[in-house]
Specification:
The complex is a heterodimer of chains A (169) and B (387).
Chain A: H1 4-11, H2 25-48, E1 54-58, E2 64-73, E3 76-85, E4 109-110, E5 114-115, H3 121-127, H4 134-155
Antiparallel strand pairs in A: 1-2, 2-3, 4-5
Chain B: H1 4-24, H2 45-52, E1 66-70, H3 76-85, E2 90-94, H4 118-129, E3 134-138, H5 145-157, E4 167-170, H6 175-188, E5 192-197, E6 203-209, E7 223-225, H7 245-264, E8 272-276, E9 284-285, H8 296-307, E10 346-348, E11 351-353, H9 377-386
Parallel strand pairs in B: 1-2, 1-4, 2-3, 4-5
Antiparallel strand pairs in B: 5-6, 6-8, 7-11, 8-9, 10-11
Helix pairs in contact in B: 3-4, 3-7
The chains are: A alpha+beta (169), B alpha/beta (387).
């Protein structure tokens, strides 16, 4: 559903051009560059807007991604590891984002800690192939999921704040 | 203290229990030739009776066939069991999941198998049921780059004669895996069945896909069987998916029934069969491929199919309902893109497209990531790390 807030989120993230997946050798490198450029800009924008909420990096081939995302409530920062594979059918199908440490702690997850996406995510993604990339999957998939699930998990006492050394990020 | 007689009685009881247990675990030996002899000890007598009754011409040919079952969950495990009991030649199982107690509302797996990989647990049970079936297992996720090539390689070389498998059955529970199977089958020209049960557990479907001849999974958005539930009353709070052993068993039954019809050449193979549990409604239809399908291999198979001389078939000339809005050359859209996008497209009575695809993106106002060639990927990766 492209409502106003989604529209605003999306206007922050550069669209991609190259329709290529990890099986498409050269074109995939081109796509990866676009992914990185779009992500770098998105993260930079988030930082500038004081709304920094994730970091990602990938293996050399760009097929495995990992990093951290965080959620702030009552001035406390809750941080989680994020990981996902780029499926062979990318970008026609979106990556399945996982938060492995929350596996088994919420019903809104599939095996391995893959987050349960809303009914709207897949149609929206399908309509925007190949323009949507990893940044969009994070903003439209993981972002809203964290906003709903984390406060709920905190209030249920399933997750609690852990003191972390400031990484200076 | 117990008397000697009492102890002897206990020993006798335990011995009989032990012998019952050990006897249970002796599987029968392999049977070289399927016999149609009607005796209590012949596991194939009722199947071979299909020949005598004129339903199937040559039932024992089932032993020549190899079927790959991708996804050994609620539908796949029952599918595998049915094929095993039918005496299929070779069964190839793919799954990367483990058996959990949360699976016990479905058929096949047992509580003591919790923690085992689904393919290993299934193979053990199936070999016990019918040692004549050759079972191969692959415990990995087919959608990832590191496994996909092995997956396609197995599909292409693992039949009984080391050729491509005779049929692929998709029993997976997610869009990504279906798409991966579709990609593989279009690329290597493999015939397959797609199957599925809705996340609310009250509808399901099977779809027969012959690359180039019938619609592939990428030809149109996924089809959904109308469940006749008002979406607003459908609560999704706190859960991802519901499931019922009934719906899954029914879909597995449809799937294997059509598999048998396809392999042993009897009856008609259904192109699409849906099931709406709340109304006991079973929509069925033919599905033509989309000439503008996004999958280039699908389009290639379509060309090959058109070029192929048609064999005369004694089939009734029946008007097939074509999916509407298959292509949209002029990008005409009636949807107010910023409001409600769930346009209901009826493909056939009781069957709709999950969503519609505009030919132009509804989000056009943001800039594109433009890549200047003077930046290397390594530089970008380093830049990302340093933020």
């Amino acid at each position: 559903m492209v409502d106003e807030s989604t529209r605003k989120t999306l206007s922050n993230i550069a669209l991609l051009k190259t329709k290529a997946g990890p099986r498409d050798k050269e074109l995939w490198v081109q796509r990866l560059k676009e992914e990185y450029q779009s992500l770098i800009k998105y993260v930079q924008n988030n930082k500038d807007a004081d709304n920094d909420w994730f970091r990602l990096e990938s293996n050399k081939e760009g097929t495995k991604w990992f990093g951290k995302c965080w959620f702030i409530q009552d001035l406390l920062k809750y941080e989680f590891d994020v990981e996902f594979d780029i499926p062979v059918t990318y970008p026609t199908t979106a990556p399945e984002i996982a938060l492995p440490e929350l596996d088994g702690k919420t019903a809104k997850m599939y095996r391995g800690g893959k987050i349960c996406l809303s009914d709207h995510f897949k149609p929206l993604w399908a309509r925007n192939v190949p323009k949507f990339g990893i940044g969009h999957a994070m903003a439209l998939g993981l972002g809203p999921w964290l906003a709903v699930e984390i406060p709920d998990l905190i209030s249920k006492g399933v997750i609690s704040y852990k003191e972390k050394t400031e990484s200076g990020k | 203290m117990s008397t000697v007689e009492e102890l002897e009685a206990i020993v006798a009881k335990l011995e009989s229990k032990l012998s019952a247990l050990t006897q249970k675990n002796v599987p029968r030996g392999k049977i070289q030739q399927m016999s149609s002899e009607v005796v209590d000890s012949n596991p194939y007598s009722r199947l071979m009776a299909l020949k005598r009754m004129g339903i199937v011409n040559n039932y024992e040919r089932i032993r020549d066939y190899t079927v790959a079952v991708v996804g050994v969950g609620g539908v796949g495990s029952v599918t595998a069991e049915m094929l095993t009991r039918c005496g299929i030649g070779r069964l190839i199982l793919f799954d990367y999941d483990k058996v959990e107690l949360a699976n016990m509302n479905r058929l096949f797996f047992q509580p003591h198998q919790s923690g085992l990989s689904k393919v290993e647990a299934a193979a053990e049970t199936l070999r016990n049921i019918n040692p004549d079936v050759d079972i191969l297992t692959f415990n990995y996720n087919i959608t990832t780059v590191e496994n996909f090539d092995n997956f396609t390689n197995v599909l292409n070389t693992s039949s009984i004669t080391n050729g491509p498998v005779d049929l692929v059955l998709s029993c997976v529970d997610n869009f990504e895996a279906r798409f991966a199977i579709n990609t593989a089958c279009n690329e290597f020209n493999l015939t397959w069945f797609e199957s599925g049960v809705s996340e609310n557990a009250v509808s399901g479907h099977i779809q027969f896909i012959v690359p180039g001849e019938t619609a592939c999974f990428a030809c149109a958005p996924p089809l959904i069987v109308a469940s006749n539930i008002d979406e607003k009353t459908l609560k999704r709070d706190g859960v991802c998916a519901a499931s019922l052993p009934t719906t899954m068993g029914i879909v597995a039954g449809f799937l294997v029934q059509n598999t048998l019809k396809y392999l042993l050449q009897f009856g008609q193979v259904t192109h699409y069969l849906g099931y709406s549990a709340l109304t006991d409604f079973f929509p069925t239809m033919g599905l033509k491929p989309n000439p503008n399908c996004e999958d280039s291999h699908c389009r290639l198979r379509q060309k090959e199919f058109v070029a192929k001389p048609k064999t005369e078939m004694a089939v009734e000339a029946k008007e097939e309902e074509k999916p509407i809005h298959e292509d949209n050359e002029w990008g005409i859209s009636l949807v107010n893109e910023s409001v409600e996008e769930k346009e209901q497209v009826n493909v056939s009575e009781g069957v709709q497209l999950a969503y519609t695809l505009p030919s132009q993106s509804s989000i056009a106002e943001c800039e594109e990531a433009t890549v200047s060639d003077d930046v290397s990927l390594d530089e970008l990766m380093a830049q990302m790390k340093s933020i």
